[in-house]
Each structure stands twice: as structure tokens, then as C-alpha cells.
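Revision sheet: C-alpha cells.
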Amino acid sequence: MTLYYEQHGRGPDVVLVHGWGLHGGIWSDVARELSARYRVTVPDLPGHGRSRDFQPQEFTPEGLAGEVQRVLPGPAVWIGWSMGGFVTLAAAQRAPQTVTKLVLVGATPKYVQSPDWPHAMSPTVLDQFALNLEQDYVATLERFLSLQMAAGEDRSVLRRLRDEMFRHGHPPAEALHEGLRLLKQEDRRAALPGIAVPTLVVHGERDRITPVGAARFLAAQMPQAQLELVPAAGHAPFLSHDAYFLDKLKSFLHG
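Predicted:
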């Protein structure tokens, strides 16, 4: 089996990388908007969506980035959401000549707290997610999706996340566990100063999965980064504040 992906439009290349448990379909509205001026590639990462049976050589950010780079026609703007942010950062590190710009959405260089990193979840949260997946699979995924919402956001965003997560069947438990292991172990803070491509960091001000301090750190550490905070938004500002998000994204891409 090969990695599943879709391509839309013509023009400079853009790739959209989804987050944990989801698939490329979560980007459908963004892909449609961008395809008027760009050739947009939307993969389902290994173990997710229509790539559910595709096994990468290694389930690491570099390994996942390598699988996506194999299907890209050339250098591209990489847009990564949540766990997809790890993949886009890895792409810029392993093959910088293939990355023209970066957009990091709800991303972080480190998902778990440590004495020198408060802008994250407690390690026990991810451990509990892994345990709960074994005991009540669907309820655990539902709780994860609810954490992506900020107070006051339209409930249609949660319905959209739920519909997409289960659109192609239940995500394989093995891939979910691999993703949780990746989120728990990765720390890409030291690499940030060496990633010198123009970068837009877009982050919801009320993100409960990746606190806003992580976005400020990304923007401060990357040499050509700019920060765009989305007022009142949670973890998925491209869904909850789509018009605002697209306006900032297009300005960055066209500039």
C-alpha cells in the first residue's frame, strides 16, 4: 500500500498536514480556498484516514515527513496543525531545500511539561489517554476532541471534528498509540533557531492542548517567524475562525 493523498488546483505547491487521530479531510475547506492559486497536496499520514493500513519505516516526525515528501512534486509551503506541526518542522530540518515557507497551526515544540517547559500538558495526561484508549476507545477520542474547543466556540466545530475523525472508520489503535508516544517523547526546541525559512505561527489564544506560551516560544526562537494569535479560539482556529484564519494565511502566502 502507498500513502493516500489528494491534489487540488495548479500553481506553487502547498502541503497540508493534519493532526493526531484525524486525516487530510479536516483541511477540505482550506484546501478548496487555496486551490484557486496553488497546487495543494493533502495527505493522510500513515495509520490515519485512508492511509490506515500504510506502515511507515519509522513513526517519527522525520519518518512521517519523508513519506509526505515522496509524494510532493517539488518544493512546497508546509502547513502543519497540532501533531502535523512536528512533521512540518522535521521536513524543514531534514530537507530544507524542499520547504519554501512554514505555517504552524496550534503547534508546539514539546507537548509535555518539564521543569524548564511549563507551556504544555502534564505527562500523566498523555499516559491516561493511552490507558483509556484500551478501556473505552470511543469515549477517549470524544474527550480529546472536546479539549480542542475553547469556551464559547460554536459546537458545530466539535461536530465537524467528530465527523472527520470517524469518517473512514475508527482510527487504528496502534497508530493512535504511536502518535501518543511521539507526542510524549519529542522535544524540538533546540532545533528551532536553525530553521530559517519564513514562518507563520497561528495559535488560538484559548488553546487547551498547546498553551499559547508555546506559540510565543516558537515565534521568538525561529529567525523568520511571525506570530498571529486568534482571539477566543481553541486548538483548531482554521475551523472555528475560518475567515480570520484564511485572511492571515493568504496574506502570508501571497506576501
